[in-house]
Amino acid sequence: MAQRTAAEPADWREQLARMPAEFREALLVPRWSELWLDGRSLGEVEAELGRDGSVRLLPVVDAKEDAELARWRAYLAQPRALGPCARECPEQLLALEYDIAESRLKLLTGRAELAAAGAFYALPASGGDGLLLSNDLSLSGAGQEQLTGRYNLDVSGSLGQWTLAGGLQLAQSAARQQRWRQTLGHWYAQREWPRHFFRAGRFAPGAQGMVRMPGRSGDTVVGVMAGSSDALLRDSEFPSLSPIQVSAEAASVAELYRDGVLLYSQRLDGGLQALDTKRLPGGIYPVELRVSKDGVELIRRREWVYKPQRWGDPERRWRYNLFAGQRSLAAEGRLHQGHGWSAGGILNYLWHPRLLLGAAALWQGERGELGASLDWELAERLRLDGGVFLRDCGQGWHAQLARTFATGGLQLGMEQQWQPQGQAQRQWSAAWQRQLGERNSVSLNLRHEARGGVGVDLGLNRRQRWKDRDVDLRLTLFDQPGAAAQPRRRGMEAGLSLSLGESRRSVNVSLGRRSNEAYAAVNVQQQWEQSALRSAGVGLNADSRGVGVNGSLGFSHALADGSAYLSRGANHRFSGGLNLRSTVALGGGGAALSGGLAGGGGGMIVEVETDQPDAALSAQGRWGAQRLRPGRNLVPVSAYQPGRLNFSLGQAAGGAALSLRPASAGYHLNRGGVGYQKLKLMRVVTVMGRLLDAAGQPWAGASLVNHAGRTLSDVGGVFTLDVHASTPELSVERAGVKHCQLVFDPATWPRDGEVVFLGDIGCPEQLAGGQANDQENAG
């Protein structure tokens, strides 16, 4: 006999015949199953299987479903034959299969091969119209200086199949001694298609993942843009190919600026370490790194971010990005201030799977700029990125060579610019990392800048076992140019980090010497999981000037999350800062407020209705798990890509039995889209009884339904069903026709623990302690 292929459905009668006789009857009772379409889950359904090889889905009870699952539920509301689809086959349906072992009803359509080949995601028919308002506030101050701060409002919305984006920034610099300045940034509408996009509004003309656009990346235009896009193909959150490393003291802060705009800030530990570059925009562009501590700037230098987008389709050799519009300068309180016309474009060509070439041109009035680049994989682990530019105010080039090994890597970079007067500025850098066995590693950074000379950072790390705990030892030596006309920073630091096991407490100790001055520091950090206060730390540091103290807090609340720190330096100078993030979601018929929404561009409002507020309820998705509280919660989800949120329930206080419906929720949202799902989490009791018809005989095959689920009465009319303790109701149905609804009080009936015995009941009867509504003769 020929072997059945994966696309060929298993025969239902063959599966049934292979089963023991005592199990066959159990399969014919409605059972919870998973509905799969072309290899992906659509959600949990209640399926009724027939002896004739048919299947139908029972109606959903008090739940809101996504459009795709609702379409298939409507089709399967009538019995459909398992096996090849012969008639009434919507959406290229080829076959239906029920897998007994996995309790899965599988649908196979003509689009299955396309989905398996990694095709572009289709835009959702209804993209979850909504609005996401992300608020980000950062405040810092030191000594008697004026407060420095920044507030960003990023707007992302969905209207039909269009994405709406906008941004507002309020900023104040202590150095300028001025009031808060208001800048209206980008505001545009964008539409995605497989491989292409179109944008209209005010935007920066750069393109992620392609050759660097000539000119200042901070310039914006009011106009239109069209180009290649892989947004419907994959996510682009990956680190820079060239790590940005820095030697810093404990409790210092690193900031990355692009054309004077803050992109990212990070709290630093002591020693040589790499910054987290995953959250930075894609592309190849320069940034300015600033490191400060206690209000004093220690390091300022230029770095490069290398995040070229991976080529999505090798068969498509060309990629493009074209724009035209009027230059728009940042104007306080104004949407647009015109300053001449601008146009430009970028072309990328995949010469070879390992060689990508790029060219760019920009015109601003009578001024023109040109650029070119290459991304060349010279060997399996050897890569060269480089570019040249030519403009009225100068010319230059940059290149980076990266070599990776099984135990480390080496990066070499160089940049040179010529001014119109012929003056040249050159800088180069080298970074080497090596793993020496399982417990030791070494890192070396060298760089040369025209203004500061050569800088060196050397880091040695070792992980040692001590009393069944891992201890991280580090040694850092550094010789760096000073910032803001300060002398060079020379010295060394030895550090120790110890984790205290299950208490989630850690201790960091460091001793060092910088610029002929010795110092020491100790920090204790405590973390919590199930608490609004996520982390707290306190530290002491001492040098020849005295002793300083510092403290930090990290918190997460339903309204906002963030961090705060305060320090008193050895120079008796106070400094502190506060970072707050929150997101407001509007859509799906409601609104929700949450802490910072880190995810893939969309959000789901999950409203929890419960009589057990202390129960541990969580939602799991591609972005991890998130605890759900009673009321409205905002959960991050991926844009464009269909998926599901699965809801899981922990043990309730006192061991009460709980019912959660639904167990999962599907989504398919546009970027900026907002979905909605309501959950019911209720305490349940189990009721047992015997259903009688109008003649007083056992009524077999009737459906008993309530908010918590449904069941069928057996041949003797006996049934067992969970009901919500707060709404003890039963609806009696037969063949899709509702006969009556029974309301009863569990306290008036015999019970054994959480099981209530109703005895003989029927539609024409009045139940003690309750009533029979809408009674009909079941005949």
TrEMBL record:
Limits of the Pilus assembly protein E-set like domain: 241-306
Keyword Signal (UniProt): yes
Span of domain Pilus assembly protein C-terminal: 669-763
Keywords (A to Z) from UniProt: Signal
InterPro entries, per the entry: Pilus_assem_C (IPR031917), Pilus_assem_E-set-like_dom (IPR032636)
Pfam families linked: CooC_C, TcfC
Official protein name in the record: CS1-pili formation C-terminal domain-containing protein
